[in-house]
Amino acid sequence: MQVAEGTFLHADLDSFYASVAQRDDPSLRGRPVAVGGGIVLAASYEAKACGVRTAMSGRIARRLCPDLIEVAPSFTSYVEASRAVFDVFRDITPLVEGISIDEAFLDVGGLARLSGSPSRIGGELRRRVKAEVGLPISVGIASAKFLAKVASAASKPDGLLSVPVGGELDFLHPLPIEALWGVGKVTAGKLHAHGIGTVGALAAVEEQTLIAIVGQGSGRHLHALAHGRDPRRVETRTRRRSIGAQRAIGRGRHTGAELDAILVSLVDKVTRRLRSGERIGRTFVLRLRFDNMTRATRSRTLRNATAGTDAWLVAGRALLEEAMPMIADRGVTLVGISITGLDGSDDEQLELPLGDAAGPSRPSAALDGALDAVRDRFGSAAVTRGVLLGRSEGFSTPQLPDHG
């Protein structure tokens, strides 16, 4: 009999800063790495095995791990990697709640018929983040958000753990109290002083007794969590500042025609999502990853914000043409695009129908609308651009309209 699964995913990148450093510098892979100067901001799992921890002084870290390699932080790389990972999240489901630069909750409850079980979706998420961004990620699956977060922590490094529906307390109660949200050193010390060391022991304490130990707010919060209660939903109220897509294309030389076809496909996909969410954008960003794992980002801002495919295709092709010398020299393994500076489509200022790259002409906008209608009714493969005919587009999960 198939085990029922929860529909909340918590996805958490593993040792994010250190993993980005190891991704970008192959000589660091498999070696103990600490990111930071005087204080450790992140440690690779090889460094953690030696006892190195976040917020530890560099002096103590070097004493614990004589072979430790210290690297300076690169916040531009972290932001770029985070955006690429969140692009994958939002390509899987529009119900994404980011809670930090390297983790998010996803609600996949409406995707069973399209994409399969939550475990299958979680596995596909992990595969895509590894293939498209080059980073390991752990995923927890459960019927409540906090349980999914606990499960992702238990699955690390680079794992997936699904807590079956009905088995929440069996999973939760043997864990130490420190596994719960809100249990830091001070709270843990108070609980341990009363002989409470596991979540199960915490659940056996009356709520009023718990309030007397840790205070009213914490007492009620921890009592609910210890019994598996967390009614919160995934919150997606924050308006997105960009919409993007990317494609890993593997090592080897790729012709200009092949790269142009990939760009056309990505622009088609992203602009359709813009229009379905009634959004317009102003800046086009092209991201490239090369054979040596280095990266480059190029951008171009239009005079007027738009959701028109033709205008963005002109901008994207110009950026790709500028990047061709780098591509010829280094090879390319990933092409990604994003459109930023988003606003509501009601704010679009239409120009006279001159058809230049600065804004969509009325015939172009009408064509975009007609193509969107055909694809909405008959599927995304019902109509395509001539440049894409005969080229493998790969499998992609049907997406719900993106409303930010």
Name the descriptors.
5-stranded antiparallel sheet, MutS, DNA mismatch repair protein, domain I, 5-stranded mixed sheet, single chain, disordered C terminus, DNA polymerase, domain 1, alpha+beta, 404 residues, Alpha-Beta Plaits, 41% helix, globular
Structure description:
The protein is an alpha+beta fold. It has four domains: 8-15 and 76-162, 2-Layer Sandwich (Alpha-Beta Plaits), CATH 3.30.70; 17-74, 3-Layer(aba) Sandwich (MutS, DNA mismatch repair protein, domain I), CATH 3.40.1170.60; 173-226, Orthogonal Bundle (DNA polymerase, domain 1), CATH 1.10.150.20; 242-388, DNA polymerase, Y-family, little finger domain (Dna Ligase, domain 1). The chain is built from 15 helices and 13 strands. It has helices at 16-24, 45-48, 58-64, 75-92, 112-115, 118-133, 145-155, 168-172, 185-193, 199-203, 207-214, 216-226, 256-276, 309-330, 362-378, and strands spanning 8-13, 33-36, 40-43, 69-71, 96-100, 103-107, 137-142, 160-162, 242-248, 279-290, 295-306, 332-340, 343-344. The strands form three sheets. A five-stranded mixed beta sheet has the order 5-6-1-7-8. Strands 9, 10, 11, 12 and 13 form a five-stranded antiparallel beta sheet that branches. A three-stranded mixed beta sheet has the order 3-2-4. A hairpin with a 2-residue loop joins strand 5 and strand 6 (103-107). The longest helix is centred in the C-terminal third of the chain and has 22 residues, at 309-330. The model is unreliable at 352-362 and 389-404 (pLDDT under 50).
